[in-house]
Amino acid sequence: MANKKQEIRQLSLFDDSFFETPVKQEAGDEKKRPLSKKKDLYEEMQEKARKEMEEAEKSGTFLRIEIPIERLKGPKKTDGRIQVREKRRRLRFTFPDGTQMCSASATKTMIDAICKIGVERVAQLNMEVCHVPLVAQEVSPRYARWTKRIDDKWFLMAQGDTIQKYMQMVSIIKQLGIDVKVELGDFETLEPVKAQKLESKKRKKVKMEVTLGDKTFTHGSDTILTFLEVVEHIGVAKVKKTGIKFGKFPIVTNAKMANNQIETSTGEWLTVPTQAKDKYKILKVISSMTHTPMEIKIME
């Protein structure tokens, strides 16, 4: 007897080809249902497979159902080769004073390094990740699960792998012009460093006193409020016309553009330097360009 011709069709449980069979479909079952991981649909697919195998045996048509290898648990195979998961990596920072930071978590290492550098200095760079500030005082609801606390005031947008964190820290160090060695190595070969308790240097609280004519402005150690009151006394519009810039942004902007800005009484935003010495310099420039004599005192 002549052997019957065998028709071999490759089907998959994970795409619509499963339902495209030579077996005539029943009435009312013409629509293809989208696949789902739900248990009831999977059981329905199994039942259809059983029926089609029975029909195929009766008609002499053989069906071979293939399940993609990547759906199976265990090592992935491609062209007979096993795909090995990429090795874990570790970050290590070495500061000029000999302080080293290297832990199992790249995020923790990054936070420790940012604290050592100065959170406010990093925040003023206005770096972003997914259109969200890298370092900010607010948590974006959309990326809350990737946001990690730095301290009581600041948060880090920590989405990304170790390589991305490495690139971010390299950028921070270059922009700030500081001498910090950054290393990216294999998790196993780069030796970890025992957690070192960072000694928080207590900054000496300074006071700023500004005198314009017979009026004196001072709020003790709150130099930000003193700076704001002096600018508003001179006139926000007048200061804005000078076109003075601090960093990348004008001293006065219509909308908030940086973390170190505060809103003025006119609804505009004033860029306030973090350090008292920078406030002193900016006020001196404002004094010169607006022809407003003032005496500024910085006291510890």
Sheet with the most strands: spatial strand order? 6-5-12
Can you give the mean pLDDT?
Answer: 75
Question: Helicity range of the residues?
Answer: 25-40%
- What's the oligomerization state? single chain
What is the number of independent domains?
A: 3
The major pleated sheet works out as:
3 strands, antiparallel
Radius of gyration: 33 Å
Number of strands: 20
Q: What pattern of helices and strands is seen along the backbone?
A: EHEEEEEHHEEEEEHEEEHHEEEEEHE
Going by helix content, strand content and strand pairing, the class is alpha+beta
Q: Can you count the helices?
A: 7
End-to-end Cα distance: 108 Å
Uncertain regions spanning at least 5 consecutive residues:
1-26, 29-37, 63-77, 197-201
Give a quick summary of the entry.
By secondary structure, this protein is an alpha+beta fold. It is built from 7 helices and 20 strands. The chain is elongated and about 105 Å long.
Question: Helix and strand layout, with pairings?
Answer:
Layout: E1 8-12, H1 39-59, E2 62-66, E3 76-78, E4 81-83, E5 89-94, E6 100-101, H2 106-117, H3 119-123, E7 128-129, E8 132-133, E9 135-136, E10 147-149, E11 155-157, H4 162-176, E12 181-186, E13 207-212, E14 215-218, H5 223-234, H6 236-241, E15 245-246, E16 249-250, E17 252-253, E18 261-263, E19 269-271, H7 276-289, E20 295-299
Parallel strand pairs: 1-2
Antiparallel strand pairs: 3-4, 5-6, 5-12, 7-8, 9-11, 10-11, 13-14, 13-20, 15-16, 17-19, 18-19
